[in-house]
Structure formats: C-alpha cells, structure tokens
Amino acid sequence: MIKRIILLSLGFVLLCTPVFAQGMIKVGSINDLTGATSDVGKDMALGIRECVAYINEHGGINGKKLQLLLYDYGYRVPEAITIYKRFRDYDKIAMLSQWGTGDTEALSPTINKDQMVALSDSFSGHLCDPKKTPYNFVYGTDYSTNARAALTVWYEEVWKKSDKWKQARESGQKPKLVCFYMFASPYASAPIKAIKDQAAILGMEVGPDQDVSLVALDAKSQVLGAKKDNPAVIWHGNTTMSVATAVKDAYGLKLEADHIVNNWGFDQNLVRMTGKAGEGVIGAAACAFYGMDVPMMKEVVEYTKKINPNVPQEKRDIRTVQAWVKFGMIRDALAIADKKEAITAKPAGPRIKAAFETFKDWQPFGTKGALGRPPVTFTDTDHRPSAEAMLYTIKDGKIVLLQKIDMKAKFPDKWASWLGW
Amino acid sequence: MSSYLPCGTYHESYRDEQKWWRTPFIKGKMGLMVILALSLPLLVRLDWVGGEWLSVAYTMNYYILAALGVQLLIGYCGQITLGHAAFVAVGAYCSTYMVLFIPWPAFMVDYGLAYPLSIVCAGILAGLWSVLFGLPSARVKGFYLIMTTMAAQWITVPLVITQYVSQIGGRGVALSIPPGTIKVGPWVIDPSNDEGIYLFSLVLVALCLLAMGNIARSKLGRAWVAIRDNDIAAETMGVNIVSYKLLAFFVAGFFAGIAGAFYISALSFVSPEHYEWFYSLLWVGIILIGGVGSIQGLVFGSAFVVLVFKLLEMGVLGLSSGLMDSYPELGWVTTKIIFFKESAFGLAIIFFLIYEPNGLAYRYWQLKNYFNLWPFSYTGKGA
Fold first, then answer.
1. Phi, psi of A109 (to 5 degrees)
2. ipTM over 0.90
3. Cβ–Cβ gap A184/B271 under 8 Å
4. Which of residues 44-63 of A touch B (CB under 8 A)?
5. Bridge partners of A392?
6. Residue-range domain boundaries for chain B
C-alpha cells in the first residue's frame, strides 16, 4: 500500500513538473469553466484547445510549437491572480489569454508593470485606452461600441420604420430604454455609461435599470418593474442563460419592448432557450456564428470533430469561433514578435505589444473575411480593435445578419472622444 | 519552573497557565515560525521558490483574517454565521472610499497614514454593520440565526453595496485604485509589490491572532465560551448573553473589515463580485476543516484550502504541459479534472466531518502530545 502511495505521489510530482522543451512558446489561458459565466466559457475553452492544435499542425509560430496552459478560475478574481503569477513566474509564459472583465481589470496594473501582454475575452471599453492599460488588448469590438451600435440600429431600423411603433412614433412619443444587467458584475455594467450616452445622443429617454443576476432563473419582478416605465427597448448586458430568462419572462408577462443584447448573451443557445419569445431579438457578435458559410469555418468544424469528437455538433456555438479569432490573433502577434527576436529572449512583452500595434485591417489566419470577423486595427494610441459592429437578429428561429455598422463613419466627430468609455 | 519540553512543566497559578510563553520550547517554536514566515520573500529573491508562492501565501493570510471572525462567532461563541463576506465587503469599500475620496492633508498621504487609518475605520464600520445583523441573535439561534446572517449577505452585497455604495464615484460597480495610492508608511503596497503585500498581511495576521488569543483568555472570551457551551447556564451565572453576543458580532465584524481593507491592496480593484456568498461558505468550511474553536485550526484550515486548490492547479497544468503537447485530443481529460476542483472542497468538508470532526487542529494536538512524551510515551499496552 505504502509503495503504491509513493509511486502515485511520484507520478503526480512528475506530471506537475514543467516540461522545458526547446522551441516552444507558452501561452497561459485563464478561463471560466465552473463559475457564473461558464455557460459561455466551456465552449470557448474547447475552441481554444482545437485552435491551438490547428496552429501546431500548421507550422506553429515560425516553426515553434505553441504550448497552451489552460486553467479554470471559477470566475473568482483571487484565483485568477494566483494563476497569473504562477504562469508568470513558474511557466514563464510569453503572453496571457484572459476571460472576465473583473479579473482582467484587477490584473491590469500588474500585467502592465510586468510588461505582459494580455488578450482578453472581456471587450470592456476601459481596457482599450493604451494610456491607462498599454498591455491590454481585446479581439472583439468593445462592449461600449457594440452597445451604441445596437441601440443606433434599433432606433433607425426598428423604431423609425416598423409598424409596431408607428402609433407611438406618430404621437411624438420618445422611445425609452431600460437596461437589464447584473449591477455587481463589472462585465455587465461596463458599457452602461456609453449606452445611456448614446440614448441621449439619439434623443431617447432612459428608465431605471433592472438588476438581473448572471445566474438568474427568474426575472419576473424585474420585468414587472420595467413594465411600469413602458420601455420601447431593453438592453441586456448578461450572458446567455440570464438573458434567455429575462426575454422569456418579458414575453410571458407581455412586455411589448424589443430586446437588444450584448455579445456574450447572444448565441444559438439563446435561440434554443427562448423559442418564440426570442423572435426579433437583436444581438452583437464578435464574429460569424458556428457553421455559417464564411472562410475558415470548414477548418473550425473539422477540428471540433477531430479534437473533441464527444461534444455533439448541435451543442457548438459562436464561442468556438471566437476562440479561433482570439488564438489566430495571438498566433500572428507572436509570429511577428518572434521574427524580430526569439520570444524566449527577454523581455518579450514590449515586442509582442508592438507586434499587436502593427495590426492594420488584420483578419484571422491571413484570409479575407475569415470567420466573419471585421478587420482589426490597433495603434499605440488606440486599442479598440474596430469601429465596425456586427448586429444579428433572430428570424424564424435562425440567426441572420441584420446590419454591419461602422460607428466611426457614422459619428466621426465623437469616435475619438469615446476611447476608454 | 520551566523546561524545554512542556512535559514535566507544572504551573503554580492560573496566571502561569495562561501565559503566552509558558516554556522556552514554545518561545523557540514561535521564533522558528516567525523566521520561516519571514524567509519566504528571501527564498523568492534567491530564486529558490517561485514568486507565485508569495501570492499563495498572502491569499492564505487573507483567508485567515476573513475566517477569524467566523471562528470567533461559531467556534468561540456558538453563533452560526453564513454571511461573513458581507462584512468583508463593508471593510473593503470603506477603506477604498476613504483612501480615494477623502481630501487627506498632505502629510497623511506623504507618510502613508491614510490607508492604515482607513483599515481601522473599516474594521469599526464592519463591526457596527455586523452588530446590526447580530441583533436577532438575542432572540433566535440555530437555523433561524443562519437565516438572519444569510440575510446580511443578500442585503449588504447585492442591495446596499451594489445598488448604492458602489455607484459613488461614477465608474459603476467596479472601482480601480490607481497604482501608488495604497501606502503604509513609506512603502507602496499594491499588486506590483507581492513582497510588500505578503509582509503587510503577515503583520495584520500576527496582530489579529494575538488580539484574538488575548480576547479568548480574557473574561470576555470565557463568557463567549460559556454562551457557546450552554447559554442558559451562562445567563444563570450572571453573563449578560445579549451584550456578549453583540460584542462577539462586533469583534467578528471588525476582523472581517480588516480582512476586506487588507485585500484591496492585493487587488487594486474592488467590485461586489469579490464578495459573493461562496466566500461566506468557504470561510465556514475553513474552520470546519481546520478545527472549530481553535486559532491554530483556522491557520491549518486556510492553508489546507489554499494548498488543495494550488495542488489541483499544479496537477492540471502539469497534465496540460506534459500530456497535452503529445496528445492534444486528450484535452478533455484536463477539462474534466478541473470540475473535480470545485467538488474537492465539498468532499474535504464531508471527509473531515465524518472522519475528523475536530479538524486538523486536533491532529496537531495529538502529534504535539506524542512528541511531548517522546521517546517515553505511554502506549497503554502495559509493562
């Protein structure tokens, strides 16, 4: 028995010992597989592994293997901090892939001091101003731009044109916006200031916000609270499960308002969970949805079957595609930085940051229109990836593209001042 | 009379028996602990230990500070609490707002006095807030008291802090603390300075454990233990149970406030998300694992929880780097193991409740007693 325990312990220690392989570039990834945002986090983690396998089988980073260290932090900031420090000190990662707004913003001062580039799944506008957060990057159009874009498109395409609002419109009524989100969540609350500012720009009224938990299974009281204010549109800032609950309750309680949703709350699961209630919901998206007919989607689908054959195809979602956009971006930035001088030579952080800042109209895997991601441009003064927002809607139980809107072109005088919102 | 080993030490008065330093052995043991604790930054500087262990160590210290109040309430006073994260949150927000928004005189900022003062105020405010939710303890106990302390969590974090307190300053719910703002004397304590955070946490833990140890052996501590053991008997003996219970809630809240105020230095960022109900449960779990009614148990429990999570992290990441490079299609193995991490804590509590209800502190006590008599321990097997 004692021998067995010793052998098992030795085996565990060996497994825990890092492999110091030559020609490898390590990327640490902090993900949520068990916490409040795991409803969208699990699919993302699957996609990351598949994309890394694809990268390594297709030349890696200038011939070097990309080594992925992926770990769950359960959406708990203290755990994210200790994991990052392990990645930094023990694994000596080249760069960091992050998840939530809370942990990304909490770690921001540390990574900036460490000169460690972090690419986050949080598209918080607060992370896009290089004066404040020079080493933070995001790969999707930021939440604030998405929220402004969704509200603008709704105002112009729905409020001004649809028969549903004809009577209200002609009676001179101003449309009212109400925001549904978890107040305590830095992710959900990040674009609130921006969307309310946009409502003012469009001449809309704003009703009181409704606090809906990220893990809400019931939002009837919030819907009834909002009903008193008679809103024309509701903006949802939570993730899919919570948004689905609110949309269904709004439908059940006959709240007439339309719904616009932030990108982490809008996916194929929302269509499945809301059914009829979800018809007409408008949502932002960072890229094309899983299975859509866009370049590189074939490879994404192929690798889902190859690496994770046990996960049914119908359970796949846009998060898998997002993972490919994210790690495609990491691949290209590391390749540029490594070409100048090997990544393993210290310090690599400033070179990787400079590599990101050379991105001009970047598209995943060097393919035009790949994965439906609008082109990304970073500069050393602006880390907003794009002014273009992709807005989709649910029509007859399917997600279809509603409009692509360029907020910089539409509001040229305001675009610069929105940096860091 | 004193000896190097406690065996053979006889106390002639209660004062002797209650002394902190009863034998030179205890002095030596505590000295060794201080040296070991202080040597961690040195080992990191020498590159013998990875720098991430400093953050592991100060997270452990944070849990010790946060769970200290839980230990006092449950372990010493018999008042069950399941809403302690609320008081930690009160401390964190109080300290953050004091540091950021009070127009401190220049000398307070220059000499790094603002943050230490805010910690004391955070403790007092959290203590008073805790008393508010301790008031029902005058009338209810057991399951009913659990419900009222849970109410503290729901009223404080999602309602008061999220809806009102965190809206101050205009940023919304999450508040960043600019680098260099948190100073203790001439030292800047922020996430860029792990060594500073660790040493600062050591000082706070030492002070709070010393305070708790002293309170526990005072009249106050004896009254709490009397209430815990049998409140009716305690009242019969003249203990004013309402006052002492409320005092217990105040002191527990005070320690929680200090924990919250300390941890903002490690995060430089405060958000209601950091004080979810999970933490209230975690801190109760820590004292169940470590040992209810024991200060040592609190330290053991915190170390156990932090190290179990760390060990699982090492295992999963070890698998990632060792196995995944050659067999990427086995990624699901590491993903599945991650789910074990969440259940590990629950399993540990069940394991301890079944097999060691007295916690790790009891095991330590057994070990200590064994070595007190070593090598001539009494085996009970006869001559």
1. -60, -35
2. no
3. yes
4. 45-46, 49, 52-53, 56
5. A283, A401
6. 50-295
Range from A12-21, A33-42, A58-67, B351-360 carrying the lowest mean pLDDT: A12-21
Amino acid making up residue A414: K
Contacts of B313 in chain A (CB under 8 A): 71, 82-83, 86
The secondary structure of chain A in percent helix, strand, coil, rounded to multiples of 5, reads 50, 15, 35
Decide: pTM greater than 0.90.
no
**A111 has pLDDT over 80:** yes
Which A residues in the span 202-221 are in contact with B, Cβ-Cβ below 8 Å?
A: 211, 213
Beta bridge partners of A389: A405
Mean pLDDT of B10-36: 85
Amino acid letter, residue B364: Y
CATH classification number, B50-295, choose in 2.60.40, 1.20.120, 3.40.1620, 1.10.3470: 1.10.3470
Nearest chain A Cα to B318, which residue? A16
pLDDT at residue B328 greater than cutoff 70: no
Identify which of B52, B173, B329 has the shortest CB distance to residue A86: B52
* CA pair distance A196, A202, nearest whole angstrom: 10
Q: Are B322 and A306 in contact (CB < 8 Å)? A: no
Q: Using CA atoms, how far apart are residues B175 and B229, in angstroms rounded to an integer?
A: 43
The bridge status of strand A398-406 relative to strand A388-395 is antiparallel
> Who has greater pLDDT, B173 or B131?
B131
Whether A225 and chain B come into contact, CB under 8 Å, resolves to: no
List B residues 160-199 in contact with A (Cβ-Cβ < 8 A): 161-163, 166, 170, 172-174, 176, 179, 190-192, 194
pLDDT at B329: 65
pLDDT in tens, B264-313: 998 888 888 889 898 999 999 999 999 999 999 999 999 999 988 888 77
